[in-house]
Amino acid sequence: MTSVQQVEVQKDEADMRLDRWFKVHFPGLGFGHLQKLLRSGQVRVDGGRAKAETRIKAGQMVRVPPLAVDRKASDNLTAHSLRDTGDAEALSQMLLYEDPKVFVFNKPAGLAVQGGSGVHRHVDDMLEAWRSKKGEKPRLVHRLDRDTSGVLVVARTRQAAMRLAESFRARETKKTYWALVKGVPKQREGRISTWLVKEQTPDGDRMRVAKHGEPDSDHAVSNYRVIEQAGITLSWLEMEPYTGRTHQLRVHAAHIGCPIIGDPKYFEADQNWDFPGGLQNRLHLHARRIVIPHPDKGKIDVTAPLPPHMRQSWNLLGLDETAAEEGR
Question: Within 10 A of 310 (CB to CB), how many other CB atoms are there?
Fold first, then answer.
């Protein structure tokens, strides 16, 4: 963490000792280091000095100086692990970044962003737990598929929501996804440009590649590159959607003959293809990084760790996460 943060105390953290609060949010921060920060006034509560034993109240703001440790790791989160966790605490566990205008969460695979048929819990409803003192509920500004994990940007104010939404519409936002796919694309990197149309199926809505000019179709453009491959069976793609159509990356991966592993809608394999042993049959698509203009000034640049099922696959296949930085 390289900048000062102002972190709001949540309802379920009321009456917690300040040192315990830091232990929960920054488990890598030693008690001795915390004491030095408190004595020097670098850690404050509502602008005032505090002690390790200070009892904090819901709604108070804790000043957190730049630290050499990260907030608690969100890389082991799953929708199942959050099932019996209160909404405020669940959001806290998912949080990757915050400032007075923006939250960025690491959404676990399996957690819906918004409500729908058969959805009992979703991020939009959970955000009720983080209404501000003014009664303002944080606002969604983009979406992720239920089974896609990774970075999700949420605005804390109406004005921030308007500016962030405009950045998405103006395509000033760079979104980077990681996917594990069947086979290896013929070209190591390329641009996929198609028209997509939604159609009704017995299993729900499904997108398909359409002809140019087909009614209700939308143009969709994605860029990709192969980072590593595991023989000729699997490859790791970095994908960047230029447009933001429903299921765009999933359809485009299948369109080039390399459907995403574990995709229940778009993965179709021939009879001679066996699902690799040791891999979970779950969607291997992760919103790895987002770079977006800040509503006030500068940019927000946040990276989300792989979800547990994808990290397991990476370890099993011997894929090195640092390989994504090569060739940039």
Answer: 27
More confident residue, 271 or 48: 48
Could you give the CA distance from residue 166 to residue 305 in angstroms, rounded to a whole number?
A: 27
pLDDT digits 0-9 by tens, 156-202: 999 999 999 999 999 999 999 999 999 999 999 999 999 999 998 88
Contact 314, 321 (CB under 8 A): yes
Is residue 172 in some structural domain?
A: no
User: What's the structural domain count of the chain?
Assistant: 1
Token look-up 């994605």 returns 222
> Which structural domain, as residue segments, surrounds residue 47?
5-64
Confidence (pLDDT) at 74: 62
Residue at 237 is within a domain: no
3-state helix, strand, coil in the chain (%, to 5): 20, 30, 50
Does residue 324 lie in a domain region?
no
Residues with active-site annotation: 145
Write the pLDDT tens digit of every residue in 5-53: 888 888 878 888 898 888 777 766 777 888 889 999 999 999 999 999 9
Burial (CB count <10 Å: 0-12, 13-18, 19+), residue 199: exposed
Q: Rounded to an integer, what distance in angstroms lies between the CA atom of residue 165 and that of residue 87? A: 25
- CATH code for the domain of 55: 3.10.290.10
Tell me if 201 is assigned to some domain: no
Residue 236 and residue 184 in contact, taking contact as beta carbons nearer than 8 Å:
no
Residues 6+ positions from 326 with CB-CB distance below 8 Å: 227
What pLDDT shows up at residue 219? 96
pTM of the model: 0.78
Query: Which amino acid belongs to residue 326?
Result: E
